[in-house]
Write a structure and sequence with these properties.
This protein is mainly beta and about 200 residues long. Helices cover about 5% and strands about 35% of the residues. It has two helices and 13 strands. The strands form four sheets. The protein has a four-stranded antiparallel sheet, with no helix packed on it. The protein starts with 9 loop residues before the first strand and ends with a strand.
Amino acid sequence: LAVFAPYKAVYAWNGHNHQNFYYNYANHFGKDTRHGAPNIQCISVARATGALRFNKPIASFGEPQGYMVVNVSGERVDWYYKGVGYGKDYQMRVYAPDAEGDGSVKVNIWNWSEGWSTPAWYENGVKVADMEFTPGVDPAYFALFQTCDNPTTRKYCTPSTEAMLFSVTPSESCKGGEVRVTDMFGNAYSQKIEW
């Protein structure tokens, strides 16, 4: 802490955690951490090859294989997750109500963390509701995991129950909609879905 104390901001990057994860030591999700390191932010990045030992195009939180792109301009530092084969705007995957059979639309925003807005659900271009944070297993990753029969791979690739999922119950007659969210740097993202 003494070494880092003179710096306005310290960014600690790592890629060992196997999923995207952000921790702001100043005030993590509104909790007083009382550790005395208000200038440190830790950013963990998923493996570029996907889930450990699985080596499929998806990691255990449901994020596509990819990497962080970091932009530094003077004292300003920002970043976004770049899925391999996708553009910068691909920051989420939306699931139709029948994906898990519970009647709710789910969205996995794989780089969501404190500082992002709460995702909002739109029907016919009109905001219907803020989505509820419901961390759980990403449906796409779970489906891929079910195709694996190697015991060792299954052991190390068990689906995470902490994917950054949000859910909402759509209107009864609804056949589609849009999820909108803004990241901690002011970048707006959206994705539409129909069923």
